[in-house]
Amino acid sequence: MDKRPILLVEDNPDDVALTMRAFKKAGIANPIVVARDGVEALDWLFVQGSFAHRDPSDQPVIILLDLKLPKIDGLEVLKQLRSNPSTKLLRVIILTSSREEQDILSSYDTGANSYIRKPVDFDRFLEAVGQIGLYWLLLNEIPPIRGS
């Protein structure tokens, strides 16, 4: 299994804790990096700001991106990722509570690889995270990493 980090972009501390617990319970051992808003996510991904010291080759194996974020929303984060050659092929899974049809359409139009609604129930959430891990970390073939 690819041991690169998973980038979780989520501003709700309860959802962060739940996701971390679900990954642990599902046996997913990848390190998890948490960005609590869109600016922090972009800084981490583009190795800038307080993350300028980070190894730029250590890109995430997947990005779990909430849509409703402070500072810069998830769709804008996705747009910036898709417009940059060094990040345009990263796998981005929208993980949100939004049931808005427009959010689903906009996410796919902008280049999301998947759109998953967060289940409210912990057992269902645990199952969803386990399936994310199985498919995106074990079964899905990833494109080769490109240099910046």
Written description of the protein model:
- The protein is of the alpha/beta class.
- The chain has one domain (6-139): Response regulator (Rossmann fold, 3-Layer(aba) Sandwich).
- The chain is 39% helix and 14% strand.
- The protein is built from 5 helices and 5 strands.
- It has helices at 13-25, 38-45, 74-82, 101-110, 122-139; strands at 6-9, 32-35, 62-65, 92-96, 114-117.
- The chain has a 5-stranded parallel β-sheet.
- Strand 4, helix 4 and strand 5 (114-117) form a beta-alpha-beta unit.
- Helix 1 crosses helix 5 (122-139).
- The longest helix has 18 residues, at 122-139.
- The two termini are 24 Å apart.
- 28% of the residues are buried.
- Helix and strand content put the structural class at alpha/beta
CATH class: Alpha Beta
N-to-C series of helices and strands: EHEHEHEHEH
Estimate the mean pLDDT confidence: 88
Question: Looking at the structure, what is the overall shape?
Answer: globular
Helix content: 25-40%
Spans where pLDDT lies below 50 across 5 or more residues: none
How far is it from the N-terminal to the C-terminal residue, by CA? 24 Å
Give me the number of helical elements: 5
| CATH architectural group | 3-Layer(aba) Sandwich
Question: In CATH, what is the homologous superfamily?
Answer: Response regulator
Which strands sit side by side, in order, in the main sheet?
2-1-3-4-5
Tally of extended strands?
5
Number of individual domains: 1
Quote the CATH topology: Rossmann fold
Beta-strand fraction estimate: 5-15%
